[in-house]
Amino acid sequence: MDGFEGSVVAVFLAAEGGGDPAEAPEVSAVAGRGLEGDRYFAATGTFQKDGTTEPRQEVTFIESEAIEAAARDYDVALGLGDSRRNVVTKGVPLNHLVGREFAVGEVRLRGLKLCEPCAYLESRTMSGVRRAFAHRGGLRAQILESGTIRKGDPITPA
């Protein structure tokens, strides 16, 4: 686990709860708030309570390899932003980052918990999403040190 070096494939933001994610070349990651321009930063996220952003809502990640595997193994073909996760990675063992710190470019984060697919995601995409992405639906993370996340940034253990 210590030797990986992955990268950011794409960054997605949805401006409001239920809104469609749009790709961005970079995003400002703010400790304690989330990603500037995203629904949870703006306190309009679908699963947000009382306008408060919980650490687990600050940023979400998904492996591009999981998206490819869902299409190959389950015939569930999603675009990179269709998973509704903020950052798409390549070469990063996200499941192994729960409880660990890691860096995305200049931003330091802590993996908090797996981001299992839910009925809401399946209703927004297609039947079979929950099964195809079980235990590989991504990672919820907390931003520890603010900075900018850019497409192409390296992702390394801290």
Structural class: mainly beta
Number of domains: 1
Poorly predicted runs are none
The helicity comes to 10-25%
Shape: globular
Please give the order of strands in the largest beta sheet.
Answer: 1-6-5-9-8-7-11
What string gives the helices and strands in order? EEEEEHEEEHHEEE
User: Based on the structure given, which CATH architecture is correct?
Assistant: Beta Barrel
CATH homologous superfamily caption: PK beta-barrel domain-like
**CATH topology grouping:** M1 Pyruvate Kinase, Domain 3
Fold and architecture overview:
The chain is mostly beta strands. The protein has a single domain (6-157), classed as PK beta-barrel domain-like (M1 Pyruvate Kinase, Domain 3, Beta Barrel), CATH 2.40.33. Strand 1 and strand 2 form a beta hairpin. The chain is built from three helices and eleven strands, in the order βββββαβββααβββ. It has helices spanning 64-74, 119-124, 129-132, and strands spanning 6-13, 22-24, 26-30, 34-35, 59-63, 87-90, 101-104, 107-114, 139-145, 147-150, 154-157. The protein has a seven-stranded mixed β-barrel. Strands 4-3-10 form a three-stranded antiparallel sheet, with no helix packed on it. It is globular.
